[in-house]
Every structure is written in structure tokens, then in C-alpha cells.
């Protein structure tokens, strides 16, 4: 099966779409697509998130659209029903790991401790999301676990920004970073979609 890193290809930023309405989600997705990005994540944090994911898939068929903030097996099924191309979780349980592993799409389980990493690895995952990256230890943590979990790579999210993303990406066990800084809330509320496009272009 295709892995998350294979989906990402040369793209090193996983841009996060947090939308309060379907229309907002579509506008953010279009702004990101206009920059040349091919992979985006819609976080399931509002009542409109699933419909936004479904609409983005329909209107932007060239985009690979993942579902983030998947907390349990019910949300996982809803995300798959909406057409999610990949699954991202903020944390893990044994049941959730097994369900994500059984999916037909790639999964990126969220970890924050060595115990989490060991559990995810035991369930067959070698690509993980470190969340919340800055609070979980950031770059020093990633350096520390690199010699222990030599076959595990990460996509850190949480506290990543334009100023520190290159420091994370310089680590050999980092395959990409997740971030919201390319779609800041004030830009979305003001409808300043060009700022999202420009911020995304800056990371390509």
C-alpha cells in the first residue's frame, strides 16, 4: 500500500485546512492548490469539516485530501466515507491504531512519547506525526529518539512556523512538517486568499 511519504512526494509541508463552513474550506483549498501544493489536510474540528472535505474532493480532484484530528473509529469511518485520501490522528489508542492500519488509505498516527512510538511501531507504523511537536520536546526530542527508533520517521505538527520549519526539515528522521501558519485565521476571516497562496508558495 502507498505510504504517507509516497503521497507527499517532494512536498515537505502538510498544510492544514481548518474551516468553519464548507465555502471557507473550498476557498482555503483553492488558495493552497493555486500555490502548487498537491497534498492538504482537513482537520475535523467543526461541524462543517466532513462536508468541506467531501466538497474539496469533488471540486479539486487533483488534490490529495486527508482527514486530520481523527480521534476514534467512528470519526475514522466518517472520514473514509467522505473520501479522505489519508488519515491523521492527534493521538493513539490500540483500537484506533488497528483500525487505521486496516484502512485502504495511508495513516499517520499521532505520537508524543517514546511509549507512543513503540506502540505505533508495534502495530506496523514507521511514519508518524509528532504532536504537539513543540510541547513534546521538538527538535531535541526528535534527535534523541532517532538513534533508538532508527526505522521511524516523523511529520512534526504543532508549534511549527516559517521561522523554524527548516530546522525541523534538516533532521534526517523528519519527512515533512504540518502547519497552520500558511492559512492564518485572520486571513481566512478577511477573505485574503492570496496571502494563503503566497505563504504556501514560500515553502515550495
TrEMBL record:
Pathway: Carbohydrate acid metabolism. InterPro entries: Aldlse_KDPG_KHG, Aldolase_TIM, KDPG/KHG_AS_2. Its EC number is 4.1.2.14, 4.1.3.16. Gene3D superfamilies: Aldolase class I (3.20.20.70). One of its GO terms (molecular function) is (R,S)-4-hydroxy-2-oxoglutarate aldolase activity. Keywords: Carbohydrate metabolism, Lyase. Belongs to the KHG/KDPG aldolase family. PANTHER family: 2-DEHYDRO-3-DEOXY-6-PHOSPHOGALACTONATE ALDOLASE-RELATED, 2-KETO-3-DEOXY-6-PHOSPHOGLUCONATE ALDOLASE. Homotrimer. This is Bifunctional 4-hydroxy-2-oxoglutarate aldolase/2-dehydro-3-deoxy-phosphogluconate aldolase. The gene is eda.
Amino acid at each position: 500500500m502507498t505510504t504517507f511519504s509516497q503521497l507527499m512526494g517532494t512536498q515537505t509541508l502538510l498544510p492544514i485546512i481548518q474551516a468553519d463552513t464548507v465555502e471557507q474550506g473550498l476557498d482555503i483549498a483553492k488558495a493552497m492548490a493555486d500555490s502548487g501544493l498537491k497534498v492538504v489536510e482537513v482537520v475535523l474540528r467543526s461541524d462543517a469539516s466532513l462536508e468541506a472535505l467531501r466538497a474539496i474532493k469533488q471540486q479539486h480532484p487533483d488534490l490529495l485530501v486527508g482527514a486530520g484530528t481523527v480521534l476514534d473509529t467512528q470519526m475514522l469511518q466518517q472520514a473514509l466515507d467522505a473520501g479522505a485520501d489519508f488519515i491523521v490522528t492527534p493521538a493513539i489508542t490500540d483500537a484506533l491504531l488497528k483500525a487505521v492500519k486496516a484502512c485502504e488509505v495511508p495513516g499517520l498516527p499521532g505520537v508524543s512519547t517514546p511509549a507512543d512510538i513503540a506502540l505505533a511501531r508495534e502495530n506496523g507504523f514507521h511514519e508518524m506525526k509528532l504532536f504537539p511537536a513543540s510541547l513534546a520536546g521538538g527538535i531535541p526530542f526528535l534527535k534523541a529518539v532517532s538513534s533508538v527508533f532508527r526505522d521511524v520517521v516523523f511529520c512534526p505538527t504543532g508549534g511549527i512556523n516559517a521561522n523554524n520549519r527548516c530546522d525541523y526539515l534538516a533532521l534526517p528522521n523528519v519527512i515533512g512538517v504540518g502547519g497552520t501558519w500558511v492559512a492564518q485565521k485572520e486571513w481566512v476571516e478577511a477573505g485574503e486568499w492570496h496571502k494563503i497562496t503566497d505563504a504556501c508558495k514560500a515553502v515550495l
